[in-house]
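[job 0412] stage=complex_fold ligand=magnesium ion status=START
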Amino acid sequence: MSRAIQAVRGMNDLLPGALGHWQRVERCAAAVLKAYGYREIRLPLVEKTELYVRSIGQVTDIVEKEMYTFEDRNGDSLSLRPEGTAGCVRAGVENGLLHNQVQRLWYAGPMFRHERPQRGRYRQFHQIGVEAFGMPAADLDAELILMSARLWRELGIGDVVLQINSLGTAACRAAYRGTLVAYLEGHRAVLDEDSLRRLHTNPLRILDSKNPALQGVIERAPSLVDHLDPESAAHFARLRSLLDEAGVAYVFNPRLVRGLDYYTRTVFEWVSGALGAQATVCAGGRYDGLVEQLGGRATPAAGFALGMERLVELLAQGQVQAACGEPQAYMVLLGEEAQRRGMVLAERLRDRGVSVECDAAGGSLKSQLRRADRSGAAWALLLGDAELSAGLVSIKRLRDHGAQEQEQIPESSLAEVLASRLAP
Ligand code: ATP
Ligand code: MG
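[job 0412] stage=complex_fold status=DONE, emitting structure tokens
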């Protein structure tokens, strides 16, 4: 036997047994997004590297050190997508989805960042992303937040805290920049290598540093929110009053800046107390300048992305089990004739919406019942010579229901009986 090949570090297999929570989040999110009028869009996993440099920003962790960038056979520089917003804007501009209209879009899928793998941080991870275009008012920002809050309620996630901040416009950030650089210059001695390099290229990024040694300096830094232009201040005030009115609790965090350069005005994060260091399950904000920056006509926009792995970990901590595609019934088929008859019967059950797995490996009653148990089905349906000659099927509850009696049901009413027993 040759040596087995292992998966790439930080890129995980998602096995059937663990997918119940994933599918539940995906179902729930699709339903909630639909309820607000959002439509799905599917986008390539690979884009031109330049797209990310121009949107996320040259001097950011993602572009400087986390992207999977490679030359294709034509010599073009391409990158695996590290996030979805840039590609969504690119597609919107290219397909004429953004000009002179409002557009509410969502997507789901894998993203790639070459980070240090640890709990809640992987090199291939999954996001559900939401992007809305053409709506400048804070009402849209509030809608995005209410929508995410509804998703947490539907999923039964209680312990997440909403943090919000405003970054103002590019102009007021430019005005604030001088104040920030002067302050940071005064604390040069504690700045790390990354921060020193960014001090004059992208000082705002320093506020997003996760380095514990820098947190004191960051906490005492002058606040961007004190430098907001009047329109941005009014925008932020309106968002806060809309959230108050809707009864959504939030924490105003003047240090929240986010790790991507394209944000303007509102930024927000939903943070959990139960995830350790990687605590943000969902993050987003407004990015009014990005569409124009990527070659479209100026279009206001806002969005967020939630991290599936972190959300699923939260769900897995609650003791709730989620079904992950187990069949409702398992057919135990004893003998050639039973196998033929069973296949027809199973089709009839599926017509009635009952999911059935048919035994196709044969063997004794005992070995088939063992497989039935392992399948996760709620019911075993037994078909042998005795049942066949009487036109009956024996049914038996499986798993933690104690030693249940077997019952005999006429073949013709099996679908009806099962459907009613399986009804929630
Ligand atoms: P963090 O501060 O945790 O690195 P981020 O600011 O880089 O997050 P975004 O780019 O805003 O994150 O992505 C939105 C969400 O996607 C995050 O809040 C998180 O839930 C998830 N996420 C981001 N990077 C990873 C990763 N490497 N592994 C797993 N989930 C991730
Ligand atoms: Mg990050």
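Residues 83, 113, 115, 120-122, 125, 127, 258-259, 278, 280-283, 305, 307, 309-310 surround adenosine-5'-triphosphate (ligand 1) (CB under 6 Å).
[job 0412] exit 0
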